[in-house]
Amino acid sequence: MEKSFHKRNLPHLYFSEGQYFITYRLFNSIPKEKLLSIRLTPNEWDFEKFSILLSKYDALMESGEYGIDYLMKEELAEICKFTLHFADGTEYKLICFCIMPNHIHVIFELLPGNKSISKIMQSIKGISAIKCNSILSRQGKFWQDESFDRLIRDEKELFFIIRYILLNPVNAGLVKNWHDWKYTFCHPDYIVL
Fold this sequence. Notes:
The chain is built from 5 helices and 7 strands; from the N terminus they run E-E-E-H-H-H-E-E-H-E-H-E. It is α+β, with helices and mostly antiparallel strands. The strands form 2 sheets. The protein has a 5-stranded antiparallel sheet with strand order 6-3-5-4-7, sandwiched between helices. A two-stranded antiparallel ribbon has the order 1-2. Strand 4 and strand 5 form a beta hairpin. Helix 3 runs antiparallel to helix 4. The protein is globular and about 40 Å long.
């Protein structure tokens, strides 16, 4: 199993296999100074501290105070949904996702021979950005450059993160039942609710 580590603003630990939880968000959905206030430090990589950080991160995105909620436009959400399903079965097994108004949570399991998480995310974000910007008749960044990613360590963590993703639109007050959110997907083998 190959392993690589790099750091821009967030630490990234990538393996050539495993299950990954990734959150990517629209450009300017969180101001830099707010993001720095909840920054993950190496001693906070344990799961309990990670879940607290995730809640703070989502609260900032879901506050409605920052950026434009482009993904509330059905046509744009459909593009994002298509790009997530596109590599399912070739690069990864798609486990779960939720397309929120200004961010997307996704879990996938890398398949043998995948082109790497960074290239997979570059494709997902690049293709969707070009298509969404075209529909919006705009230019410039659509997605924030860096995504938040985490290797899922065990079944308990996988269960928690799937539950977290499925309940994201419920906790944000967008629907009463996760089944009612049109842009939530969970592979039948992994439904936990």
